[in-house]
Write a structure and sequence with these properties.
This protein is of the alpha+beta class. It has seven helices and six strands, in the order αααααββββββαα. It is elongated and about 65 Å long.
């Protein structure tokens, strides 16, 4: 993506953010508004990742201002010069090549990610494989809506209890 287009996207996203209610606006809504403003699709992976990074940086700057800490111009310049790998870990958070938030790695090939699909947030527990130096999701796994995840997480204690009973029977 050329720097001119990157700058146009950044300007549009920042304008949307500055005119939004930050308590209720989602990243998806910001991306949609900026897409409409620019007349281009910002949902493809590279552009989605750029929008996510712009939103994350904006939120971090707003938080720093609220705490009375302004970032220096030197910090901003260094942030823009970060390599692709450095952008994967931003604000202590790790993102994959598609711009999805990696919650945790269960093993070398399995991970839990938070992704957005058709305007819905999904918790995805999936196996990954390597191809051409990139980690790609396989069909082996499950994606849960927020409602499904809530139901599952509420039942984790019952699952753990059942596992302990099963283990006791085996011993």
């Amino acid at each position: 993506m050329d720097s001119e287009l990157t700058n146009k996207i950044k300007e549009a996203v920042l304008e949307v953010l500055q005119n939004s209610d930050m308590e209720s606006t989602t990243e998806f809504q910001v991306r949609q508004s900026a897409s409409e403003k620019l007349g281009i699709n910002l949902s493809e992976p590279e552009r989605k990742k750029l929008v996510r990074n712009i939103v994350q940086t904006y939120l971090e700057e707003q938080q720093a201002k609220a705490e009375g800490k302004e970032k220096s111009e030197q910090d901003d310049e260094e942030e823009e010069e970060q390599s692709e790998d450095d952008n994967k870990k931003k604000g202590g958070k790790e993102y994959d090549d598609e711009g999805d938030l990696i919650i945790c790695r269960l093993s070398d090939k399995r991970r839990v990610t938070l992704t957005e699909f058709r305007g819905k947030s999904l918790v995805s527990i999936r196996e990954y494989y390597r191809k051409d130096g990139k980690e790609l999701p396989s069909s082996k796994g499950i994606s849960l809506t927020a409602e499904q995840w809530t139901t599952f997480s509420k039942n984790v204690p019952a699952i753990e209890k059942a596992i302990k009973k099963l283990e006791e029977r085996m011993n």
